[in-house]
Give the backbone structure.
Amino acid sequence: MNLVSHQKSVLRRQMRSLRLALAAADSQAASRAAAHAPLARLGTGPVAGYIAQGAELDPAPLMNVLAKAGVNLALPAAVSREAPLIFRPWTPGAALSPDAFGIPAPLADQPQVSPTALIVPLLAFDRRGGRLGQGAGVYDRAIAALGAEHRPFLLGYAYAGQEVEDLPLEPHDQRLDAILTEAGLIEVR
């Protein structure tokens, strides 16, 4: 393990505990974050969200705001643990089934789409667009697979308290374009 990977691993442990505390302290954070939705930046889609796991800031209120604004939505689906995520259309309330990671995803009969924007979960972020994920690299691989010419707008979605001064990053780490928190929108590019 190189130095940056080790630093990220240590920070992940710290940030998981912090995120759990932030979630317990503020049950309305997701609704307040949704009120700051950058509709103009996200466009008409498809915009891919995610189904919150554990203490992740829940994007359901944001996805509902987007749906009411007429934005086409999608969710990620893991077809295997090694392959990049794919994205399938989704509407709030539509049936879901577990993907390769056991996370609810659109049904396999739904077509694959290329999102114009991704709402991505994270453990930590910095104001330069750095993002610390869970460590499996699934979002970094998915963004790389979409290709540079089709790179979606990347919106980190987190509690304001998940901000750190400067994240250790590796060459494969994809930078965010903005971060949405309960305190508002942070533009980084």
About this structure: The chain is about 25% helix and 20% strand. The chain has a mean pLDDT of 93.
